[in-house]
Automatic annotation (TrEMBL):
Protein name: DUF5919 domain-containing protein
Species of provenance: Actinomadura namibiensis
Domain named DUF5919: residues: 136-282
Record-linked Pfam families: DUF5919
InterPro entries per UniProt: DUF5919 (IPR045697)
Amino acid sequence: MTSQENYGELIDLRGRAAYRPDVASLARSQLAAARAEAKLTEEEFAELLSPMLGWPVTAEAVHAWETVTVPPGDALVAAGLVRHSTPTTPATQPSVDLVGQLISDRFSDVTAVYASRSEFMSSMPPHRLFDGAKSIDAVGLSLNLICQQYSLPSLCSLLESGTMIRCLFLDPEGEGIKRREEEERYPPGHLSALNALNIQTLQQRVLGQISPEAQARLQIALYDETIRFNVITVDARLCVVQPYLPETRGVDSPTILVQRRWPTAGLFPIFGQVFTSLWERSVRL
């Protein structure tokens, strides 16, 4: 058959001004196809859609959407998420979060990325990050987020309430901080003085204001290595990560927010290990 003959079988809709596609039928077919691909009954599909839509969906409504009525727009979007996610049933996974699953498929356990630390702090100020925490592990250069941006009375209150805090500073007298000063083009001793001040703040203004029991919950240590990341983990579930880039100050570096989704997979365990390995090689104060 020639290409001309093929074209002869096509219908030019420009000559049919009255033509209107049956959009309602297409919508019903899309919703029915999503349920069929997920291998769900009408009851199971309704149960899966309800938390996604934020309102109760019945099996009768699903049946009607597939046969006679036009499905709501949000129901079609939710059905599309079901269609492109891993098949599941409410009976086996009643709390499945399909939106979270799709996001994690693309971005692992990264929940947000900010262009700088200031942009991150505008979205998540220190009190939102730390208030009510049971454990905080921090490694970086000067740990300003804890020592300067979070109020000292709040820090003391956390320790008195039972929070365990481990702070790992770049040694103010080490070679690593000298290399960082050169890279950020600071005069010699600039970052060293800031580190020494923050360490002194914790030792004198925090430890000096709390009970002996609370003092034992604040551990301070030093490491002297090439700095690569600033990592803060809260309650072994939330992690704030900043890379140290060439010739870029830490405050100007991108900030990544990671929320633990799995026990051993994803980025959270990787950055958690960054702290653990440096802490094991550190010198306690």
